[in-house]
Amino acid sequence: MIAASELARSVGTSKACQTLEISRASFYRRKKSMASDQEPSARPRPVRGLTPNERQDVLDVLHSERFADKPPAEVYATLLDEGIYLCSIRTMYRILADSQEVRERRNQLQHPAYKKPELLATAPNQVWSWDITKLLGPAK
Length: 140
Description:
The protein is mainly α. The chain has helices at residues 2-11, 13-20, 24-38, 52-63, 72-81, 89-98. Helix 1 packs across helix 2 (13-20).
C-alpha cells in the first residue's frame, strides 16, 4: 500500500491501483484506517452547550427537596410556569444520566418475594387440598 500511495501521487490513484493490481476500494479503506490510527480526535464541545456551572445549577434544582421525587418533564413544566428556563427536558435527562441518576425517582414500596407455601404430608389426613397434584409426599 505504501508503494501504491507513492505511485498514486505521480500517476493518479486509478492507474496506480491498476498497475499494482490492487482494488481501489482496498486502497482507500487502508488509507482511511491508517489516517484514523494516527490521531483520534476528541468530540468538540457544542457551542450552545451548558457550562459546568449551569449543569450544576440544573442538578441542584433536580436534587432540591421540592423536585426530588418529580420527573424532569414535571420539573420543566413547573419552572416554566414560574418563568424560569434552565434547559430542555432531554438535557435534564442527559445531566441525570451523566450523574448515573436516571431511574425511578419516586419512593415506591418494594414488595418482598412471595414464597409459595409447601405442605408436606407424612401420614394420611394431615393435609387437605382441592388439587393433589401439587402436594409433596414422602415419595414422588
